[in-house]
Specification:
By secondary structure, the protein is mainly alpha-helical. The protein has 20 helices and no strands. Helix 9 (162-181) packs across helix 11. The longest helix has 20 residues, at 59-78. The relative contact order is 0.09.
Length: 390
């Protein structure tokens, strides 16, 4: 089976038909297997079940396969009479109808396993040229289990509420913020990490949810387990869990009404997983993966801006307010409201320039400060009297 080639879902389902024992596992046991595989942590190192597959799979291929197996397990447990492939495509179609146009170009025509392959591929992979091959998307992939939880909700009601997705993501964001704030020492890496996390959500809210409200939103046992494990993962960004972080994790588990043994297991699990696999996980093998992201992206942004300079300058001229703010940014710092205006208007402009569509993808907004840095060089020299040509 080759998850990078067409027809892999049919081949995978054929393998599963010969090894269906995992479908009868308890939800808690299957979740534990997902966590052990690295899927919950966004670092897939093995398949969640033992399949008779000879070829070695890449991390991206493992992520695709584990996501599909998690969706298949959820579908089986629901005892839904709707065909699995049709059901998953219907689910992603409904998400698309809720204004998350991630799969918009993939959802037309007859439902098929090939169509689902394209959806899974789009969900897992952002083109390597966008965030650079050195960035492993561990944050975005760590949020894939949200799809599984939302699919479970969809199967219960044959519809998915936008409020469910918003509340779940807002709760995760709130808890991760609290995790980072619980650190004895907060560094610039932690600040960058939360920005990357926020950019990966479908429904980011500029006003984080209060901790107490976040706890109230988390109801099912799987949601509670997932949130606790994500919190444990966030504490490990500096490769250790100090006493203040451990106290926070115990409090979080208690607030979620999780048994003490399960809380200890979650902390032990992240320690064991990262300790055993520290040489195979991009998050741990890089001194600062976030800084690497910015450094590698800078070169790409420079190239794109230069290539589209004429078109971009014309678009800027037609946006008078943006032009004023950009020229002012060369001599003073813009306030928060002005920065938001610049970001929103730049994104509107990038929509009209196809080669700059990368800024519309998850994480793309993080590149905007790099764009603003280079834009003053496109403006007439009268606006930038202090500029010295390179």
């Amino acid at each position: 089976m080759n998850p990078s080639a067409q027809g892999w879902i049919k081949k995978l389902l054929l393998h599963v038909s010969k090894n269906r024992a995992f479908l009868d596992l308890k939800e808690t046991n299957f979740y534990a297997a997902l966590r052990a595989s690295g899927f919950i942590y966004g670092s897939n190192l093995k398949l969640v079940i033992d399949l008779d597959i000879n070829n070695v799979l890449s991390e991206e291929e493992l992520s695709k396969t584990n996501l599909l197996l998690a969706l298949l397990f959820t579908h089986h447990k629901s005892k839904s009479e709707v065909d699995f492939i049709d059901s998953v495509i219907n689910f992603y179609t409904e998400i698309n109808e809720l204004k998350t146009s991630f799969f918009q170009e993939l959802l037309g025509g007859k439902k098929s396993s090939e169509q689902l392959e394209k959806i899974i591929h789009k969900r897992i992979q952002i083109d390597a040229n966008v965030l650079t091959k050195n960035f492993k998307y561990f944050i975005i992939n760590a949020l894939l289990y949200i799809d599984v939880l939302a699919y479970q909700e969809y199967l219960k009601k044959q519809s998915i509420s936008i409020e469910y997705l918003k509340n779940l993501e807002a709760s995760i964001e709130s808890i991760i913020l609290n995790v980072l704030n619980s650190k004895a020492k907060i560094n610039t890496y932690d600040s960058s990490l939360i920005k990357l996390l926020e950019s990966s959500f479908r429904y980011h809210n500029s006003n984080p949810l209060e901790y107490a409200n976040a706890i109230k939103n988390i109801k099912s046992n799987l949601e509670k387990s997932y949130l606790l494990d994500l919190a444990c993962m966030a504490t490990w960004t500096d490769k250790k869990i100090d006493k203040s972080e451990q106290r926070f994790l115990i409090k979080l588990g208690t607030d979620l009404e999780i048994a003490k043994d399960r809380i200890k297991e979650s902390i032990s699990s992240i320690n064991l997983f990262y300790s055993l696999n520290k040489n195979n996980i991009a998050l741990l093998s890089s001194k600062n993966i976030v800084q690497s992201f910015y450094n590698n992206s800078s070169k790409m942004v420079t190239k794109l801006i230069k290539r589209n300079s004429k078109r971009l300058y014309q678009e800027l001229k037609d946006s008078k307010e943006l032009m004023v703010l950009l020229t002012q940014s060369t001599v003073r710092d813009l306030n928060e409201e002005e920065q938001k205006k610049v970001q929103d208007q730049l994104l509107d402009i990038f929509k009209s320039i196809p080669s700059l569509a990368i800024f519309m993808l998850p994480g793309g907004a993080l590149l905007l400060p790099l764009v603003v840095k280079f834009i003053p060089k496109l403006l007439p020299s009268a606006f930038d009297e202090n500029r010295i040509d390179d």
